Structures are given as C-alpha cells and as structure tokens.
Amino acid sequence: MRAFYLAIAAAILAVGVTAITAQERAAENVGQGKAAMDRAAATQKYVFLFFWKDKNSQTEKAWSVLESAMTKFADSAEVASIQITNPSEKKIVDQFGASRAPMPLVLAIAPCGAVTKAFIKTFDEKQLRTAFVSSCTQQCLKALRDRKLVFVCVVDKDNVQDAMAIPRGVKDFKADAKFGPATEIVLVNAQDKNEATFLNEIEVGVNAEKPVTVFFAPPGVLVGRFGGAATKEALVAKLAAAQSNPCAGGKCGPGGCGPKKK
Q: pTM here?
C-alpha cells in the first residue's frame, strides 16, 4: 500500500482579480491570503491560494487556468493571488513555506484547514477538481498535518459516530495518557459512497472484513492495518517497530535501507 501523503494547500481571495492586479493593489489588499482563508472557513468553502513571484508568461498562463476554473467552483471555493515578495503576505508565505517552492504554486485548503493538494507551475481544471475531497479525507489530512497519529476505523455501521463502532484496542490506545492527546480517530462507513475514493486510496475494499483499522503516523506513513480484535499492546508494538525503521517516512536513499536501530 502506498503511503497516504499530505499535499500543501491554500486559498485565493476573489475570482476575477489577476495576479498582476493583485500586485498593483497590494497596499489596498493587506494580507488578502489570510483574509480569504478566514472567509472561506466561515462559509465552509475551500480556498485556493495562488503564490507567484514574477510577472511572466508562465505566471499569467497558470493564473488564467485557475481563474477560468474558479468561475465553475464559485459556490464551493474562494481564490486569492499572493505575490510572495509582498510584505503584507509574509506570514502566510512563511506558514506554507511558499518562498522555497517553484513558482507559480497553487495550494488548495479544505474548510477544516487541511491542505488537500498542491499544484506547481502547470495544471489543468481536471487536476484542480481533485482538490475537493471527502469529509473523512479532510479529517485524516488535517490530523496528520497537526502531527497526530491517525486511526482510520472502517465499519459497516450507518451511525459511525456511535462510540461502539470504535474497536476496543483503538479506544484503549486513545485513552492512554501517553498517546491520547496526539491521537485522532476517523470513523468511516464502508457503505458511504462519498468515501469510496478515500477507501480505495487506503486500500480497504467493500468486501473486506469489518471493522478494519488503518493506522497512520505523520506525515502520512502507514504503520499497519488491523482487524477488530487487535489489542492496544499490538498497536503500540507496531508503532514502535515503525519508528525504529530507518525507512519510515520514505527516508531511504537511492542506495536502499540502512540497518535498523538497535
């Protein structure tokens, strides 16, 4: 199973404002990136942040694609154009490390604050649409971005908020004072069609025995998958093994893995 990676995302202020106009009106739109993020969160919309540095054909072409797409996404998304050298945008540029990225950069951010996708230099409308993800995907991405351990518990219950849907081992892990504050549980109904893409991404088939728990550690490393009978001790042991693996988080170089830590 491939690792479940975070993407970087962000918001854009207003459809119809070009990258160049944003530069010329910087003094009037102080901190427009942050303002767009706040407004989008308040209205439960996504926000697309368009980071750019220089006025050139690549910047203009990328903005044109995004601007066109945003006319179709207007009911579900905000947009903001951010020149990374604008002092008023320094906080948001630093927040997402945008100054270190190739330009232009588009970050898509869900209403919960989760970064769902990052698009660099060239992209099309079809790719931009992939930034809109399911509720459980958002929860998972947000928790991983917050450096939390994540248990994705897939059940066949209609009421996934029922505490009885959480496997005992996961409950006990979350209740442990050592792990609890840094642990998030995401419950998913296996029959929810809105979560089909998410379930496919974490490789839980419709016919898989339920409940099944998929355990992730930041930034999106698969720790393991477990059946409903897995104990807290088994979960802790698997986490310890993953943390002792020198390849955890994709850290292996071209030469392969080194020896495990003793």
A: 0.76
